């Protein structure tokens, strides 16, 4: 997966915005103003930070050498995944989806309903 594919995948999701709130090189994707994915554009090789269930975060780190605790993030809840890694594009998308879902599920039921996630 390359950085442009990552961007297109993230912005295709409902209620996602992209911005550079920290600096000119850290692209942040938010669902209704809550971060679910970050990518450092100047970092080579490219990598993405994703939010993760704490137990799954540890499992991912043990399974893949290209997954590490996320730098400058809560390491219990965030992983960094190298995009050029042994992980397939589908696997990376799965973890982006997981991160997105964790954030959406953290919203109140009222907010989820307002955004159309539940009826």
UniProtKB/TrEMBL annotation:
Pfam families: YjbR. Keywords: DNA-binding. InterPro entries: YjbR, YjbR-like_sf, YjbR/MT2646/Rv2570-like. Gene3D superfamilies: 3.90.1150.30. One of its GO terms (molecular function) is DNA binding. PANTHER family: CYTOPLASMIC PROTEIN, CYTOPLASMIC PROTEIN-RELATED. This is MmcQ/YjbR family DNA-binding protein.
């Amino acid at each position: 997966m390359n950085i442009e594919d990552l961007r297109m995948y993230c912005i295709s999701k409902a209620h996602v915005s992209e911005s550079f709130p920290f600096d000119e090189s850290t692209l942040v994707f938010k669902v209704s103003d809550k971060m679910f994915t970050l990518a450092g554009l100047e970092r080579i090789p490219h990598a993405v930070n994703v939010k993760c269930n704490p137990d799954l975060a540890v499992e991912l780190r043990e399974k893949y050498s290209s997954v590490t605790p996320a730098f400058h993030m809560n390491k219990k809840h965030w992983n960094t995944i190298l995009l050029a890694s042994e992980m397939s594009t589908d696997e990376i998308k799965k973890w982006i989806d997981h991160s997105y879902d964790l954030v959406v599920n953290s919203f109140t039921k009222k907010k989820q309903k307002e955004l159309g996630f539940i009826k």
